[in-house]
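Sharing a chain and its predicted structure for anyone who wants a worked example. Both blocks are below, sequence first, tokens second.
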Amino acid sequence: MSSSETERPPGADSPADPAGALPAVAPQLRALRRQASLTLEAAARAAGLSPAHLSRLETGQRQPSLPMLLTLARVYGTTVSELLGETVAGRDAVVRAADMEPTAAGGWTYWQAGASGRGMQALRVHVPYGSQGDIVRVHPGEEWLHVLRGRLRLRLGDTTHRLAAGDSAHFDSLTPHRIAAEDHDGVDLLFVHTLLQSPTAALCLGPAPGDAS
């Protein structure tokens, strides 16, 4: 995968992944449309698509973006989880503090703050000072973060934002982004992201030449 992935506009659909990304989406889209008693033409019109585009989504020739999944879920009167073929039986709605086991990865510490296997993943995150601040991330989906403690430096594209405790950010994950702590004590975040899982779900480009921000 090359950096050309970053040139796709936010929310754009991606070509079908030969490695089998989202295998359940195409048949689910077709089955739920029929369950809603909608013709291809009627569903496409309600979703703001051409019938040919929706047909390609239903046959797996194209992969839908997250905004497109949200739109189709509304049209079919269902949820993104159902469009993805996920089952929700047996999942707890509440995650107790005592059950949040810390996981360390790449210098950051994560606590799972939501049930696994859903369309969204909620985490509490501690970002130490000087950890991963030069890594550029680009991947499908959306991200929302809220600063609990400390100060955060968030780079979105060519713009740097500095967030303090109580500040939040919500952005398309196809926008190249970096996250770093401003203070030596690090920064604590609440973090929610939605990912369409595939072998190319994350792209780390490394530090940009000559960028010291």
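Comments welcome. The longest helix spans residues 25-35.
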